[in-house]
Write a structure and sequence with these properties.
Dihydrofolate Reductase, subunit A, about 25% strand, 11 strands, alpha/beta, four-stranded parallel beta sheet, single chain
Length: about 180
């Protein structure tokens, strides 16, 4: 998830035009998400992704990133957290509208690789409140927004994190941070 130095994942109106990206980031993220077999989205992010990625790689102007991510997106199992969407009938897509804690823990128990949460601040807040997030993969952008949609809100208790050695700085000034939640 991209985040500003002061902890926002989007501007006050959902703006994300401040996020830095380049081929280095796209290539790195592409390799990393290739290790995951399940993508988790909130409704808004899912609808945004669904409107672009299924056909992005087919366009004559498609970049290497578009082609690779489109292929991954078509094949990955998608989980959508939404109280308003009904069974969309979209291949590889499951909608969770209730019993969030039970349903997510059920998915976590199934064989497979990482479950990756993309964007989706509202979904992140819900999962955070239920202690269902096992780790944070953050791309800290070199900007202070001052206001916006925070990654963390309504934090009631401290959450200890363990920094993983895969942390790195990218050439565009974005720093990748990887943390595991330390539940001990």
């Amino acid at each position: 998830m991209h985040i500003s130095l002061d902890g926002f994942v989007a501007g006050p109106n959902g703006e994300m035009d401040w996020i830095k990206h380049n081929e280095e980031l796209f290539n790195y993220v592409g390799r990393r998400i290739g290790e995951g077999d399940t993508a988790l989205y909130g409704r808004v992010t899912y609808q945004m992704m669904e409107s672009y990625w299924p056909t992005a790689g087919d366009k004559p102007t498609a970049t290497k990133h578009d082609i690779e991510h489109s292929k991954w997106y078509k094949n990955v199992q998608k989980i959508v957290l939404s109280k308003t969407m009904k069974g969309a009938g979209v291949a590889n897509t499951t909608i969770i509208s209730d019993n969030l804690s039970y349903r997510i823990n059920e998915i976590k128990q199934q064989p497979g690789n990482d479950i990756l949460l993309f964007g989706s601040p509202t979904a992140t807040h819900s999962l955070f409140q239920l202690d269902l997030i096992d780790g944070y993969w953050l791309f800290v952008n070199p900007i202070i927004l001052g206001q916006g949609i925070p990654l963390f809100q309504d934090v009631k208790d401290k959450i200890k994190l363990k920094l993983l050695p895969t942390t790195r700085q990218l050439s565009i000034g974005v720093t990748e941070l990887n943390y595991l939640v330390d539940r001990l």
